[in-house]
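Exercise 7. Predict the joint structure of the components listed below.
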Amino acid sequence: MSKISKVTLAVTTSLVGLNVPVYAAESAEQTQQNSNDSRFHERIQILGAHDKLRTQGGATSLVSEAELEKFEFDDINKILATVPGVNIREEDGYGLRPNIGFRGATPERSKKISLMEDGVLISPAPYSAPSAYYFPMVSRMTAVEVFKGPAAIKYGPNTVAGALNLVTREVPDVQSTALDIAYGSDQYGKIHAYHGNTNNHFGYLIEGLYTRADGFKNIDFSEQTTGFEKSDVMIKFNYDFSQGKMKNFVELKLAYATEKSNETYLGLTQQDLAVNPFRRYAASQNDQMNWDHDTIQLTHYYEQDAFDITTRIYQHNFSRDWAKVSGFGTNTPSLLDVLINPISEENQSYYQILAGSGDGQFVLGTNDRSYRSQGIQSDLGFSFSFIGLEHKLDAGIRLHQDYINRDHFEETYSMAVGGQVSNLNDKTFTTVNQEKSDAVSVYIQDTISIDALTLTAGVRGEFIDSKYTNGKNELDYLKKDSRIWLPSISAFYKLDEDYGVFAGVHQGYVPSSPQQNDENVEAEKSINYEVGFRFNNNQINGEIVGFFNDYSNLKESCSFSQSSNCQLDADFNGGDVNVLGIEAHIASRVNLTPSLDMPWSLTYSYIQSEFQQSFVSDYPQWGEVSKGDSMPYQPDHSLTLTTGLSANDWAVNLQAKYTGEMQEAAGSGVNLSDHLIDAQTIFDLSASYFISSDQSVYLKVDNLTDEVNVISSRPNGARPGKPRMFVVGYKISL
Amino acid sequence: MKLRNTLSAIAIAAISLSMVSCGEQTTSEAGPEYGLSAKFTESELINHLVDNVVLPKHQAFTIAFKQQTTAINNYCTAVTQNSQIDQAKQVAQQAFSNTFLAWQNIEAVQLEPLAKEFFALRDKIYAWPSTAACGVDQEVAFYHTGTVNGQPYQLSQRLKERKGLFAQEYLLFKSGTEHSCRVESGSLVGWNDLPEQTKLERQCNYLQAVQMELNDNVTAWQNSWQQGESAYLNEIKQGDAKTAINTLGQALFYLDYQLKDFKLGCPLSVGPSTCPSTDRAEQVEAKYAKLSNQAIEQNLATFQQLFTGATDSLAGDDEDALGFDDFLKAVGDEETANVIIKAVTDAQATLATIDSDFATAINSQNQDYAHYATLHSQIKVATDQLKTHFITSLAVDLPDTSAGDND
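Solution:
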């Protein structure tokens, strides 16, 4: 556990949006005293990690730093295994571009959830193009928080599914230096280091993280690796102006990240995967993703008595270009068509081009995009008594602007027998456009305590002005103006000191892209209900929630990652859809002996969805949908068991995750209709030995049983999960 | 008790919330070429289809129609002179076949002048599947007497199924001069006993009258396209592009409600509930002239041209052949374009394998009958796309003629 300064803890606390009064203090003694105050910890340790029963409605989950360090996962998909109600479509095996949904929401590029870092929207363009091609490196995070149900209403614009917040390291209170180096299978390497200190009123932190791997696949006829290289640097400075009980400080966060990965959308045929799952076709040898991301964020926090306000000014710039095999040109079958049926007369020659066993031409598409997301937001908290009732008022406003510039182009390549690939022509620009949004968001929420009842009611407003412009045709544009209010209400009733029940309802909403003219089409909206039971008696804690999301119009949009031939960013309407489910998380720690503990947790999710009408859609994952069909990429059941042994100088942890089978398309008549991804169980093991209080070594084995299954047939073709991977590491903390 | 009250309060609050209308308000302003990501504009697409696909078919029809006028007049002169009737009739039959097949190209692109007011003008020229062979015989007799029920005979006031191109086909191709009515009554009493020459003369007189009326209607149709400031040609090319796209897109649905449903569906017993209850072979189009298959061939060819922008000199995939396939690609729905083109190509290939005329295939249930069923299925693949993906991708309104059918 890192050492946390009073200032940064308070800032971070505010950043994650918990606006109960902050009791930071001027003296170290008082800081220590406050640090030990359970209310203080409540602000960042939301669920299951504190000794009190949380009394706010709305399902939330926290993966703490200690939990994150157990397995040293780099992959958010694996980290979220212990969060109930999360549905994931895996893709590259390393989690470079996760597909995360909550409570059945489409996981594609995590675009349906509000993705945040330190309480600020972090998707490249959250309103204009929310697909999360940039995802912060979770290896450097100190907490991962998930907000679902009414708890999500404070974190827009997407409120249908919920919000995911990644918490970065705080500036340490005292000098703190740490290093973590690791080496593993497929030339995996990690160097993670940070150093920080606080002198009087000034604190700083510098943190760097570098990871790489050669990848676990091999490209036919090519020496090119299939791995990745990612670097991430973050610097924080803060200054404390606090006087007495008045808290007043600022923090500047600067971050830069870059990635080069030889990733592709091209998978394999089922037959080829069965023979060698770790093969890649020759045509994908030039496929590569490159991106750069920078962040500048200035945070100001002020607190006086029961009032606090946090203001953040932020700007994120993201640029990426991803070159990858995109097809064979006009009037030819799609890549997925070919890989689903490679032996048909029409497709055979195309398959041979991909595999390098035949000659011909294919198209390499480079989706060059640049994004900016910037804004200013203030969140305030105020506690007061009114007519004998205790109120905690939270309110916030955000002025936000984001845009995406697309400069997509294509180049024709020739494939020769034997896998030699050569470029035939210059770039032909395909999609050149901009989508831009200016959004004002407001919310207000009041939490009232009436004896054992805690009642929370709030409303969120989203006011979005957007514009789409075709860069190749100035007459092709669309200006749009959308306004919506999203109410929520929830309640928690404490039945006893250790347990209680809660219920809530809120309006879900996902804005459409600026390119979609949906003046006469309903936006994605839903009414979401949940009821739950929460308990925490120090020995065991948990939460069981039942939810029902009643979509009045489920919308999806087209992206290349869905192996689609639909118009990029086009919206599709699925109409009335019901999603219901159960989420449960129970965790405990058994003291086997005075020096040996056995922590364990159980996470279970059940999801069932039903389209409420029959329709035909061009959306590649829907097709001809009949009433009663369920949404794709939703396992009915998923279960994660974590357990381990923890002694004074060593610890062993095991995570077993079962994911039920998933269908890859909802209806008939489209590629992958009636195609299922088999159920699978993945075991991950980690073991640590603490050489001293400052040093430790660790060994981890991801996918212990080397289970190799198809994890998805999208974007284009079947792809395997990551095989067994060994990693050894060394940590030192000074 | 307290818990119950609390939960009740929560439930009431939840229900209230779910009933609160928090509807999204969205307003938008779209650019004139919003949604088009092609190298061409909507106007260029419309101009190409109208100038290079539709108008050449008009010209071909009017030429054929003029030749038919001459041929019919010559035939009737031969009848009057009772000289070389058979030769003149063969020429007239050929002229009719040319006109009829040229009309099948017009049929497949029924734009507003023909289609408005429930296809009123189209029906005056060709009312199929509304036909009445017996009615034509009665009209021949009425026209000869010059009165109907004591009133002066006016062809323009007579029923559409008794005149137009159908009446001409019947009078030129039906074998023999006997009437087709089950009961000989009214003006037809004694018809079959008349001398052959008399019956031929009276039929020919009516044939010429029908030709004259057709000439008036064809002229009216052409004038509505070409003449005056409100000429339809100007309207469709220079008016609102979205409306023009909608009109041309709806014209493609001839493939559905006429070709699939009535021309093939009814005789195959897979048509809509509005199919006639007569013998199935009797429901075949142009059964007297045995031009059914050629009519279907023309319909498919014209559909293919309207959909792909192909012309006599441009293939459908030529860059300059702007059609709905290009439009679909421009809006990102190339798959629908490909499915439709393939379905129509398959249908044309199937039609080319058929030897028997449709009525013979129905009566004999030979192997060509199965080919006709295949043809119907292949066309349905295209019309299913039209009624779903096509109208969705291009924001074309589903025409009333194709709404609520039995697909």
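Discussion. DSSP finds eight helices and 38 strands in chain A.
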